[in-house]
Design brief:
By secondary structure, the protein is mainly α. The protein is 46% helix and 10% strand. The chain has 20 helices and twelve strands. The strands form five sheets. A three-stranded parallel beta sheet has the order 1-2-3. A three-stranded antiparallel beta sheet has the order 4-5-8. The chain has a two-stranded antiparallel sheet with strand order 6-7.
Length: 484
């Protein structure tokens, strides 16, 4: 197979308002494989659960993939619609056509068993675990009553074995004696998962199926369907699972598990992808990757078999490392994501260009874009003022005149940059036999309305002479009013 024929897909169901982080890991590996091999990454929606599926959920999933940078080449809401439809309820006629084809070729049959009959059969045939194989009641039925509802079942072989090679887990041998005649289409014409998945993969010419190992159980019925339809079987690669700290399947109980939640919490999309890539894949002992580096180094051969445990502390550490690094998160990209958070917190209307000068001041401190926004608020908010309690605690008869004197000196400076500010203030302090700690706290309160701040000289530079003078003056007026 040439690399130009590589076609992979991500096929979530739209039964929730956003994409689960485990599905994002699967999407990421498919995307990396497609990009590495100059192939196509297809995005489709499996909406056979019509009771819970909503179009707006599909749109939300698409938006999350785009925000992460996992932009599909083809599929739902994409410009390229060459192998659509990409939503299952839009192609019910196609599933019926294929189901009829399987019936005609003898690989499937109509099952007329009622719910009561199936329940009675289960009582007779169930094993110690409560599972009962369908006994094949309608398998050889000759009559086809027009007035009775039916489902379509696949005639599964029960002798021999199926052998296939998984790109991650190696050679798999499964005896057919474990098979049973599974339903491929409901009475209302809605396909069951394995049938719909296979028809979609055939229609969209999927070359590789890359998914979690929890789908290994679906491999056998799908391989049987490919064989019955005389269609090529895609290369299969099953990935180890993402588990919680207890070794269980990751769920809502484990905190933020959807991309929307991480986005709202101020995580970087590249950091999310970096962390997820480590679940089942690695490259030497390297920890931090840009998306381009992930693409360059990714291979299915480097994927492991061991499940990984989701570690929120490690995840936060990876995110912080990305935010600190200009190489991993450029100032331009940082400002773009920061603006989204600032806009949502009603701090004010600020362009990315307005935010850009502040980023070096907060980059080394903020562990998320939400934290960055919180650090920025007192610098951006010109209406900020310290509380009376903070003024009383911070200012006294000694440091208040010093702050006023310092403001006069700063207002006379011609060059306003960090180096000039540092040198001028140090000279000013030396002339008065003072140290920075003698006025630093008071200056922070005057400038930002709080006792803690990023590096003081950086704050002075980024605020600018006009705002520094105005804020100190405003604070001194408040002190005077407080004592009168």
């Amino acid at each position: 197979m040439t690399t130009s024929n590589v076609r992979v897909r991500i096929a979530p169901s739209n039964t929730g308002s956003d994409v689960h982080i485990g599905n994002v890991r699967t999407a990421l590996f498919n995307y990396l494989f497609a990009r590495k091999n100059k192939g196509s990454f297809i995005f489709r929606i499996e909406n056979s659960d019509t009771a819970r599926s909503k179009d707006e959920y599909a749109d939300s999933i698409a938006a999350s993939l785009n925000w992460l940078g996992l932009v599909p080449d083809e599929g739902y809401k994409c410009a390229n619609q060459d192998h659509g439809p990409y939503m299952q309820t839009h192609k019910l006629d196609r599933y019926k056509q294929v189901a009829d084809q399987l019936i005609e070729s003898g690989h499937a049959y109509r099952c007329y068993c009622t719910a009561d009959e199936l329940a009675a059969q289960k009582e007779v045939n169930k094993n110690s675990k409560g599972f009962a194989k369908y006994p094949g009641t309608c398998r050889d039925r000759k009559d086809q009553p027009n007035d009775k509802p039916y489902v379509v079942r696949f005639k599964a072989p029960t002798d021999g074995e199926i052998i296939f090679e998984d790109k991650v887990f190696g050679k798999m041998v499964v005896p057919n004696k474990e098979n049973y005649d599974f339903v491929i289409m409901r009475g209302n014409g809605i396909p069951l998962y394995n049938f719909g998945c296979v028809v979609d993969d055939i229609d969209q010419r999927i070359s590789h199926v890359i998914r979690g190992r929890d789908h290994l159980v679906n491999s056998i019925p799908q391989i049987l369907l490919y064989g019955a339809l005389e269609a090529p079987i895609p290369v299969m690669a099953h990935l180890p699972m993402m588990l919680n700290q207890r070794g269980e399947k990751l769920s809502k109980r484990d905190g933020a598990v959807t991309i929307r939640e991480y986005r709202e919490n101020g995580y970087s999309p590249n950091a999310i992808l970096n962390y997820l890539a480590k679940f089942g894949w690695g490259f030497k002992d390297k920890e931090l990757f840009s998306l381009d580096e992930l693409i360059e180094n990714f291979s299915l051969e480097a994927c492991g078999r061991n499940d990984g445990r989701f570690d929120p502390v490690k995840f936060a550490s990876i995110n912080y490392a990305h935010l600190k690094s200009e190489e991993l998160t450029s100032t331009e990209v940082y400002a773009k994501h920061l603006k989204t958070i600032v806009d949502s917190q009603n701090i004010g209307e600020f362009s990315t260009g307005h935010l850009t000068p502040f980023i070096p001041v907060i980059r080394s401190r903020a562990k998320t874009f939400v934290e960055a926004s919180a650090f920025l608020e007192p610098m951006l908010n010109n209406d900020m003022k310290p509380t009376a309690e903070l003024i009383e605690k911070t200012f006294n008869e000694i440091n208040t005149p010093h702050v006023q004197d310092l403001n006069t000196m700063l207002s006379a400076l011609d060059n306003w940059n960090e180096v000039e500010l540092r040198n001028s203030i140090q000279v000013w302090l030396a002339e008065r036999a003072l140290s920075l700690k003698d006025i630093g706290g008071a200056l922070r309160v005057a400038l930002l309305g709080q006792s803690n701040s990023p590096e003081l000289f950086q704050v002075l530079e980024v605020l600018g002479k006009e705002k520094v003078s105005a804020r100190i003056t405003k604070c001194l007026i408040s002190i005077k009013q407080h004592h009168t």
